[in-house]
Amino acid sequence: MTPGPTEVPESALLGMARQMSHHRTPEFRKLLAEAQAGLKHVLATQNDVAILTSSGTGAMEAAVVNAVPRGGKALVLESGKFAERWRKLCEVFGIEVVRYEVPWGEAFQADEVARRLEQHPDIAAVFTTLLETSTGVGHDIEAIGRVVGPSPALLVVDGISGVGVMECRTDAWGIDLLAVGSQKALMTPPGLAFLAISPAAWRRIESIQRPAFYFDLMAYRKALADSDTPYTPAIPLVRALVESLRKIQAVGIERIWAESRRLAQALRAGVETLGLRLAAARPADGMTAVFLPEGVDGRAFLQRLEGRFGLKFAGGQGPWKGRIFRIAHMGLVDELDIVSTVAALELALAEAGQNVKLGTGVAAASRVLAQ
Amino acid sequence: MTPGPTEVPESALLGMARQMSHHRTPEFRKLLAEAQAGLKHVLATQNDVAILTSSGTGAMEAAVVNAVPRGGKALVLESGKFAERWRKLCEVFGIEVVRYEVPWGEAFQADEVARRLEQHPDIAAVFTTLLETSTGVGHDIEAIGRVVGPSPALLVVDGISGVGVMECRTDAWGIDLLAVGSQKALMTPPGLAFLAISPAAWRRIESIQRPAFYFDLMAYRKALADSDTPYTPAIPLVRALVESLRKIQAVGIERIWAESRRLAQALRAGVETLGLRLAAARPADGMTAVFLPEGVDGRAFLQRLEGRFGLKFAGGQGPWKGRIFRIAHMGLVDELDIVSTVAALELALAEAGQNVKLGTGVAAASRVLAQ
């Protein structure tokens, strides 16, 4: 239960074991077209979705170099390790950065974004994050979209960890560029990244000089019209993607969002009942970050959970290294995974000498699930 | 028998069907270390080899942006579609290009390279191609290496199609940056690319400002020291790579080079006996490009070969569209594949109304194989 790579459905694993075929064929174009349609459903968009052979960071780079020209200005919303990546990308590509920073664990305020857009009317793009994986915060992209919408700035969102598990309405919320990774809620192995591109983003891309070749979205636009990719795609990963998207579409993304929220609420109820404190002021529905109790060694605690129960959680990063642990719940995670996660936490805390009443966390989680 | 994606061994296909595990674990680091060692064998190098999640074009971009700073000067050796990609990459990243162009199908002359290096002592890198897939030419990298070696320029080679099938001695020939793709002679699905980086290349990379983030090799260097990758790798493709590399190492790269040469010689003998003309003045051992005879429609010819025999060849590109066809022979291609390819050509030419004596091409190919 780490925030990616997540478990991949059997049909997708078996899809990868098929022999290669050539990618510039009607059969493979049909597969790419199906992947496109499935991604549009998951991303709740009618926009084009480019399929990149890269990690999610590649899609972030593509968004930066295609949205803001060298010497342009960007507003970066910073509150964690992955938001920080937006700033570093902007700096590498010669973009002037205006920062709006909130402490780790807190959420961005839309009116603070609006204030900075007024102060700097030449901001070309606002970079933010749906699920900040380092803190477990789910940012209010809908509210941010409302203040960015009327401005000339593009809204660029890192949805790598959040899309497919927590509500994210690309078109309704006015997201111009949405970066998504394959290995999180999309239940596909790592190696593909996706970028939804709005008509306004296309106009920007057409109008600026882009320091990009592999990530030049104009090449993808030309290929997209033909259900093709500009460079040889990772064929087995595309096959896996199509299988996983079929599973998602069979349920429907709206229902997945609702289900994921219920699971997250159950986990949070269980965790808080055990006296643990959530790390995120606005917890995301795809991942729960929890402060370690005083006196519990993080490393030993996570090793005990993995060794005894085979349960792998992620530790903290940056300033929160050794202070938190992170439980991802997306993709194939179900009700009983949540219940048993809470049960394992109870046992591990008791063994670590914490004063927990066994069964109380599980009871709290189950009460949410029973509703 | 197209120039990639090539057939993938069963062990590699099955390796991909395994469930995901986390990549920052001792088990996965061990796999990455094995991949590193195998790649060093195949590339005949002691240099570091970075593993990128991208198509081969990504490795080419990485080579360009890490080897030559914006405003620097590069010598690009041009003679086909893929050599042209070096020039386009340089142009996009603000590098001044000195061109040395020879007509399609011809090979570069080392003394012409030397002359340009003398004329432009500020050339920071020479970009060239091992196997130019659009023409079937195998360029003399050894000779080019001898003239680039004493100059301050780095030697950068696109070995995407050639490495693993034709002789390529990275260290002995003085190749500073060698870009390789997974889906050609390495018998791995597309989606990974490799870059061998010499100590001189590392010194250059350290010393220049790099307009790169996803492809910034300094991030790979840091990760390499720890048998890690800077961004989430394409786990199934790494597993497939390790399986395919085991197969290559079991034979040994020197023996594969020699075998591939023999197969190429047999195919060329067969093709020429049928009265067909080779397109490449210096044919590569991994791919044979052949001019279509007068009066034969290329499209119909290739469709007949595919429809009747299930044999897929590639057509021509750019100025050679409709004028040539291209037969790749790398990876799992063996003696009988060569013989049956020539037999199929005989039958297809006869059906296209050409005057061929059935069996003569096969006999010529077999005589080479009998030696």
Features of the shown structure:
13 helices, globular, seven-stranded mixed sheet, Aspartate Aminotransferase, domain 1, 13 strands, Aspartate Aminotransferase, domain 2, 371 residues, alpha/beta, 2 domains
Give an overview of the whole structure.
Two copies of one chain form a homodimer. With 371 residues, chain A is α/β, with parallel strands linked by helices. The first copy, chain A, folds into two domains: 10-251, Aspartate Aminotransferase, domain 2, CATH 3.40.640.10; 253-370, Aspartate Aminotransferase, domain 1 (Alpha-Beta Complex), CATH 3.90.1150. Chain A contains 13 helices and 13 strands. The first copy, chain A, has helices spanning 10-16, 26-43, 56-67, 81-92, 110-119, 141-148, 199-207, 217-224, 235-251, 253-273, 298-309, 335-351, 360-370; strands at residues 48-53, 73-78, 96-101, 123-129, 131-132, 137-138, 154-158, 177-181, 192-197, 277-278, 287-291, 314-315, 324-328. In chain A, strands 1-9-8-7-4-2-3 form a seven-stranded mixed sheet, sandwiched between helices. A four-stranded antiparallel sheet of chain A has the order 10-11-13-12, covered by helices on one side. In chain A, strand 2 (73-78), helix 4 (81-92) and strand 3 (96-101) form a beta-alpha-beta unit. In chain A, helix 1 runs antiparallel to helix 9. The radius of gyration of chain A is 21 Å and the shape is globular. The two termini of chain A are 24 Å apart. The mean pLDDT of chain A is 96. Chains A and B meet through helix 1, helix 3, helix 4 and helix 9 of A and helix 1, helix 3, helix 4 and helix 9 of B.
